[in-house]
Amino acid sequence: MYISEKEIEIRYAETDQMGVVYHANYLVWMEIGRTRLIEDLGFTYAGLEAEGYLSPVTDLSIQYKAAMKYGQKATVRTWVEKHGKIRTTYGYEIVHEDGKIAATATSEHVVVKKENFRPVSLRKIDPAWDAKYMEIQRVMD
Which domains, ranges and CATH numbers included, belong to the chain? Predict the structure, then answer.
């Protein structure tokens, strides 16, 4: 299993009235982590879009464990939890500088044609990308 890491400096604008990171910002950080993972593997989401495909979120689950605050740094750890014919599930840990887990999450995605949103197998449009995901996924079919 391959795990990508991306450090995030927490900005004041990402906090709420209680001084902690607003919950929806974790979703943005997950996207940043997912983009980093894809780039670390030698692919780009922008390239996928340029070819006429999108990868929308079809399911999302997040568990908040320990609050993060302005001035701290978060590390987003991202991996391919499971990759199948149509669906890819990414796993995430967002951690404090001392390693304490702030949140864990998964997001499920499908690749679709941009013009009609019909699902398409990643294997058909980019066999190398599909093979890499099969190789590094955590859960084997």
Answer: 4-136 (3.10.129.10)
Supply 129's token pair.
């990308």
| Interatomic CA distance for residues 91 and 32, integer angstroms | 13
Contacts of 26 (CB under 8 A, 6+ apart): 62, 64, 94, 102, 103, 105
40 is a catalytic site residue: no
Instruction: Assess contact for 78 and 16: CB atoms under 8 A.
Output: no
Question: Do 96 and 76 contact (CB within 8 A), yes or no?
Answer: no
Instruction: Give the residue from 110, 106, 104 showing the smallest Cα distance to 88.
Output: 110
The pTM assigned to this predicted structure is: 0.94
In whole angstroms, what is the distance from residue 126 CA to residue 12 CA? Answer: 40
* CA dihedral sign, ordered 13, 17, 20, 21: negative
Chain segment 24-55, per-residue pLDDT in tens: 999 999 999 999 999 999 999 999 999 999 99
